[in-house]
Design goal:
The complex is a heterodimer of chains A (319) and B (310). By secondary structure, chain A is mainly alpha-helical. Helix content of chain A is 69%, strand content 4%. Chain B has 11 helices and 14 strands. In chain B, β4 and β5 form a beta hairpin. The chains are: A mainly alpha (319), B alpha/beta (310). At the A-B interface, α1, α2 and α6 of A face α2 and α3 of B.
């Protein structure tokens, strides 16, 4: 092997180092310890206070401004805009040191000298940190609920809880990305760089792709789909949208997927906001991968795939 | 069945060879001192035993199980004190121990464990505020959880004061009497010589000597060194000393005041008698045993391996 560096030995060893097993008791023990550890950090309490303040401030402002028929879903749609941007930052912040930090401090040897497999450690870390994020969301959302109940015209408890659940799933997706990347790097410096890369990818690059595709369509490089809708005054308007595959690329972003899922549970309240794409835009029917439930699948994809890669890799490296 | 078997173990990190066809065995029930200077490969060996790193070639087995394939089972029955490790700053000693007890499905009492290592006072204090010695005591307590069949202690005396190091050795003895095999790495000879049944000396990834402490001591050509300060010395007296049966060497170290250095295996009084018989006044004398440190030095430094206690 010509490029034999520290990681170079992995490939040769992959054959004789069997994949580790998963023991649920071990996962639980690691998750519990990690939760205990993280729950004592200022970050946790800061987060809970932050979510509470965010929700209460928005609700307070709304009840003061008192717009007509402001529903639970309208509130959720508004808060989700903020959560879409904030949750990834928090998840990356909570998760980036999960494994890399322990490797740097050497304490990973405490975990791994106990009867835990590497997979147990990864899963336990992911669960522990996700639990921390979820608990802070839960505390923040529940306290703020008092304010929300007064702010909206017709409070829907199921929709509110569904929103909380979806936000937790969104947090899980980013936590999975963070913890997985953390396990693939040897130092916190590298892990930090990886987190920054993710941030740039989904905050900047992904949005630019959409804009770029729109521009390409305008210039005629991409063939858009033209359809007609009814305007406000009843006249026919001809509109062009991006083709299906371009819309799908946009949907892959976890943040967009998260926002799309709100339509899934809007039916829980009296306020249906319909699907993300108007049916009129799809004369031949909406392809399955653009339907709203597919967004949930995308979120689950982001939770599972980075983790699967990390589980495979982490078993094969030298600590 | 040996507690640890290392067979033709080689580990390379890129171009660096950490271990080179290393082979040795640790018998069941013994205290084995694993000695070597920093960078000799001690930690790498331990890392292979615990499956933290994978061998480039060769194999290791612990408690009769393959170190890679049955690592979880091995670690269930092994207590480990790792080296160069930070504790969890925000967790207390009690929480650290509870985590280990929980992980090993053991039933130990955290307080009793901390009492053994002398850290009861700090039981509910966060480890972030611990001194190095306190951290080391806590990690020793964590290694003792679940009455392990094998204890792997990597540089356990790090950060301990002489008293702490003595207490640690006392615990090693107790654990050994309970039936545990102890694998004890150190770069300081005197820490292993009082507790270890056998000592293996590692150098540049290879075992250069494995023997009992006595055996190692005997392997050194040295005996006792006698240093005598006298009022005067002449060649006749020196020749007379050299001709004594037990004396292997005698030299004049300095002339102001004259000092004779004699290497002697048996009676030291014979040397003193020779001097006194010639009317040479003995002002002072001291003897030094060839220490195991000298043995260690001889095996781990680049000088010729014969030891001359001087």
């Amino acid at each position: 092997m010509s490029t034999e560096t520290g990681a170079g030995t992995d490939a040769t060893d992959a054959g004789n180092s069997p994949a580790s097993s998963i023991d649920l008791e071990s996962v639980r023990a690691v998750a519990k310890k990690d939760f205990q550890d993280a729950v004592r950090s200022w970050l946790f309490w800061g987060l809970s206070a932050f979510f509470f303040t965010l929700m209460a401030a928005l609700a307070g402002f709304l009840s003061w401004a008192n717009p007509d028929s402001f529903t639970t879903i309208s509130f959720i749609a508004l808060v989700s805009q903020v959560c879409k941007l904030i949750i990834p930052l928090i998840a990356l912040l909570l998760g980036w040191k999960a494994i890399a930090g322990e490797r740097e401090a050497g304490s990973i040897k405490i975990l791994l000298s106990l009867p835990h497999s590497r997979k147990d450690v990864l899963l336990g870390k992911l669960l522990g940190r996700t639990a921390v994020l979820s608990l802070s969301l839960l505390i923040g959302f529940l306290i703020a609920m008092v304010a929300v109940v007064f702010a909206v015209s017709e409070f829907s408890f199921p929709a509110y809880i569904a929103f909380l659940a979806m936000t937790i799933v969104y947090g899980l997706a980013y936590m999975s990305i963070a913890v997985s990347l953390s396990s693939l790097t040897r130092s916190t410096t590298m892990a930090g760089a990886a987190m920054f890369g993710i941030f740039v990818l989904f905050y900047i690059v992904w949005n630019s792709i959409r804009t770029a595709l729109g521009l390409l369509m305008q210039r005629g490089y991409i063939e858009g789909v033209t359809y007609t809708t009814m305007g406000l005054t009843g006249q026919q308007i001809e509109t062009t949208r991006l083709p299906d595959w371009a819309l799908f690329i946009d949907m892959i972003d976890p943040g967009n997927a998260y926002q799309n899922t709100i339509t899934l549970f809007s039916a829980l309240s009296s306020d249906r906001i319909g699907t993300r794409f108007p049916t009129a835009a799809f004369p031949d029917g909406v392809p399955f991968y653009l339907e709203d439930w597919f967004s949930l699948l995308i979120l689950l994809f982001w939770s599972a795939v980075p983790l699967a890669i990390a589980l495979y890799r982490f078993d094969r490296v030298d600590i | 069945m040996p507690a640890i078997t290392v067979d033709e173990l080689t580990k390379r990190f890129g171009q660096t060879v950490a271990l080179e066809t290393l082979s040795f065995e640790v018998e069941d029930g013994e205290v084995f001192g694993f000695l070597g200077p920093n960078g000799a490969g001690k930690s790498t060996t331990i890392n292979v035993l615990l499956d933290f790193v994978r061998p480039t070639s060769g194999s290791a087995s612990v408690l009769g199980m393959d170190a890679q394939r049955q690592s979880r089972e091995i670690r269930q029955r092994t207590g480990v004190l790792p080296e160069g490790v930070e504790l969890y700053d925000r967790l207390t000693a009690r929480q650290h121990l509870e985590f280990v007890i929980d992980s090993k499905d053991a039933t130990d009492d955290p307080e009793a464990l901390l009492e053994r290592v002398g850290l009861t006072d700090a039981i509910d204090r966060k480890a972030g505020g611990y001194s190095k010695g306190m951290a080391q005591r806590l990690m020793l307590a964590m290694a003792l959880v679940g009455e392990p069949d094998l204890l792997i202690l990597d540089e356990p005396s790090t950060g301990l004061d002489p008293n702490g190091a003595r207490e640690m050795r006392e615990i090693v003895r107790e654990e050994n009497e309970r039936g545990a095999t102890v694998f004890f790495s150190s770069h300081i000879m005197e820490q292993v010589e009082t507790v270890c049944d056998r000592v293996g000396i590692l150098r540049d990834g290879q075992m250069v000597a494995v023997d009992s402490v006595e055996g190692l001591r005997d392997s050194v050509d040295g005996g006792t060194t006698l240093r005598v300060t006298v009022d005067q010395i002449d060649d006749d007296a020196l020749q007379a000393i050299r001709s004594l049966p037990d004396v292997t060497d005698a030299t004049v170290e300095s002339h102001a005041p004259p000092t004779v250095v004699v290497t002697v295996d048996g009676s030291k009084t014979a040397v003193l008698s020779v001097l006194e018989d010639r009317g040479i006044e003995i002002q002072d004398f001291e003897t030094t045993e060839a220490s195991l440190d000298d043995v260690f030095q001889s095996y781990t430094t680049d000088t010729e391996t014969e030891v001359h206690a001087q």
